[in-house]
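User: Membrane fusion protein (MFP) family protein. Structure?
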Amino acid sequence: MSSQDRSKGPQYTEFLPEAQAISESRHSPLATVLVMVVAGFFVAIILWATLAQVDQAVVAPGEVRPGGRVKVVNHPEGGAVAEILVRDGDLVVEGQALMILDESLLRAEERRLRGDLLTLEAELARLEAEAGGDAAISFSDEVMAERPDLVATHSRLFEARRDALQSQRESADREIEQRQSEINTLRVRIGTLTESARVLEDQVASLQKLTDKGHFPFLRFQSIQRQLNETLGDLQETRESLESAQSALSAARSRRREIDETGRGNVLADLAEARGARDRTAAALDQAETRLDRTVIRSPVDGYVQNLAVNNPGQAVRPNEPLASIVPEADNLVIEARVANRDIGAIEPGQPAVVKVRAYDFIKYGTLEGTVERVARDANRDQDTGQVFFNVEIRTDRTHLGAAPGVNEVRPGMEVDAEMKTGSRSVLSFLTDRVIGTADEAFRER
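Assistant: Predicted structure:
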């Protein structure tokens, strides 16, 4: 159709055949723009669905428990409660007194052992002075201040034992002197007798021939000979007496050494026994003081008192009976989430988590950030519902919600919802996976 025919207007196309009229009619610019906009919108949607990522997360209910384990307070020996210093829910610090047990019997035992120890210390000071040969006893300041009676008693005993030992030594020394003097006298006598016997022997020898020839009286010769025999007998007897005196001197000297050795040996034996008794008594006193210190039952950690089992003073408690529980006040909390069996395969340590505390509106107060710390290897079964779940521990970065510490505190026992991020995926794959999964299940015959 020529340009002249088109210029004739729409009235011209009314008289043309339908197919030719459509081809001859002019397209509207608005329709073209609308089609392009719609097409661009769908392309943008597909592009966004391909590039946009959404987080994948496993949501599980859970409960808050302290970052440290709950500490159970007990007493190894038990006893009667004298005073209760805390109540359930009180915040306590490490080492703070919770309750006090009756200490009257332990206090009496401690006083008895302390008195025994001072007695042994005084005895040890005396024995050490005796063993060292000191002129006086050096008592400790504690003994002198608390037990002057022991100082006086052991000082008198020290002097008496020293004097008795000195008396034994002096007696032995006198005996030694006597034996030595006797020996000296006998030696002089032996010398005199020896010289007399030598002179008489010379006379007998010189007079023997004269007597035989009749030149010297026979009776006179016999008298001299008898005198010689008597002198030799006295000399032999004196020598035997000297040997006996020397033996007696040796015995006296042995007794003198024995006095020193026995006295020192007895002192050393008594000293060793006293030291052993002192050490045993000191150990028993330390134990008694430890038991006295344990009558004040203290908190092992900072935390809150729970399950206080003692209500009235005078109440008896058995050894190792739980008296209270201390829930630690830690810098962070542990969330124990119960993850369903179908989701546990996607959970592993180190994954980030968001914790919403049911007691606080998360829109108003926010959430806690945390990290998966431990995944249980064994499953548990809910006794009420029968559902299988795995315990997953999440450690949080704070113990409160909001910016101000000490406000909106999250405490053990509160229920939470934990969202553990397991990955991310595109929106398009999320939609296509659902379609593919539905189609896969739809074309199965039961």
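Residues 1-9 have pLDDT under 50 and may be disordered. The chain has three domains: 71-99+296-325, 106-295, 330-437.
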